[in-house]
Specification:
The protein is of the alpha+beta class and 350 residues long. The chain is 34% helix and 27% strand. The strands form three sheets. A six-stranded mixed sheet has the order 4-5-3-2-14-13. Helix 5 (108-118) links the parallel strand 2 and strand 3. Helix 1 (2-18) runs parallel beside helix 3 (59-67), helix 2 (36-52) runs antiparallel to helix 3 (59-67) and helix 9 (229-255) packs parallel to helix 10.
Length: 350
């Protein structure tokens, strides 16, 4: 038992540190952190067992639990309800191109647009946004609500200038500046919009980081994943490496922002990752600060994934965070958070 306890401790410590190692530097380091929940639970079990056995060795797994406690917070939250407070509401949603490839399903594209149209968020950020200027309803025209929303878009693929893929940000407040950071294959990319709210200006980022490049149909088929194990593993590893490059560029750009930052998007990575902790070391996460439960955002067979996030800088306070599971139109659930701008004095004392 002694050797097993210390072996588990050493492996756990290495796993807990692995989120700080870029997958670009160490092959497969992006996959290793996926074992963190397993070893955290193993340490809890060992600690409980050693306590019952009245052995002082329980201190070893207890130290491991303390070292890995931050991973509990990124997994499960039980925050108090602050629904009475109002602030800036932000909606983020990977709309899966409004399912334009599945038009044989009557009304599916209209349903998702109508659902979004009923939302009253101050700022909306969309990934895998699809705009077809020849169709009705036209996504941009419909979501602008007769000019009630200003908008910015990053086009990463287009056909004849009339059908566009990319990312978009819609805002009830004026967008005074906009820009892009990078764009990758098809719908992956990152953009920002500087938004003027009364006398204040904030910067909103919308990111869609590199996916695992596994077809959506295969993600919904466990047998398909098993049969293509080697290729699946290779694609997952390639995705982690590419995301590492992208997140390094993203965090560097955020550090140079002249304004307080809100970062939304589909990060295609779990909370136990270099991607997540690179951003978390710079910004706070709305789910951790104001969410409840597990906050899973993936709407496929791998339902236990939380890969969509809203991060924010110290200039804000997160009042609420929700995963809107009633919107069952895409392979992701939308997420929404409400923020209050902190007074300058409070920011200086935090």
């Amino acid at each position: 038992m002694k050797y097993l306890t210390f072996l588990v401790f050493v492996i756990s410590a290495a796993l807990f540190y692995s989120v700080n190692i870029s997958p670009e530097l160490l092959p497969l380091s992006g996959l290793i952190p996926l074992l963190i929940p397993v070893f955290l639970l193993f340490n809890i079990f060992l600690c409980f067992l050693l306590v019952l056995s009245k052995k002082k060795l329980f201190v070893v797994p207890l130290v491991a639990i303390i070292l890995g406690w931050r991973f509990v917070g990124v997994t499960l939250q039980l925050n108090s309800d602050r629904s009475g407070k109002e602030g800036i509401s932000v909606l983020s949603y990977n709309v899966h191109m409004f399912n334009y490839k599945q038009m044989e399903e009557p009304g599916i594209r209209t349903d998702i647009l109508q659902w979004i149209g009923k939302q009253d968020a101050d700022i909306m950020a969309f990934q895998e946004f699809y705009q077809d200027s020849t169709s009705s309803p036209n996504a941009i025209g419909f979501l602008r609500k007769d000019g009630a929303y200003d908008y910015a878009m990053q086009v990463v693929e287009e056909w004849s200038g009339k059908r566009l893929f990319g990312l978009s940000i819609f805002s009830k407040y004026p967008i005074v500046n906009r820009g892009t950071l990078f764009e990758n294959r098809k719908t992956n990319g990152a953009m920002f919009a500087d938004i003027k709210i009364e006398r204040d200006t904030i910067r909103v980022y919308n990111a869609h980081l590199e996916s695992m490049n596994i077809p959506a149909g295969q993600l919904g088929d466990i047998e398909g994943i098993k049969q293509n194990y080697d290729k699946t593993l290779e694609k997952i590893n390639k995705g982690t490496v590419n995301r590492a490059t992208q997140v390094d560029e993203l965090t560097k750009h955020i550090q140079g922002s002249p304004y307080p930052v809100l970062l939304t998007g589909d990060f295609n990575d779990v909370p136990y990752s270099y991607t997540y902790f690179s951003i978390r070391n710079l910004l706070k996460n709305a789910f951790e600060s104001a969410g409840n439960g597990f906050g899973f955002t993936f709407n496929r067979v791998l339902f236990f994934l939380r890969i969509d996030n809203i991060f924010y800088s110290d200039a804000f306070e997160a009042l609420r965070f929700n995963t809107l599971r009633e919107a069952d139109y895409s392979d992701h659930y939308p997420i929404q958070a409400v923020f209050r701008r902190k007074p300058l004095i409070q920011q200086e004392t935090d």
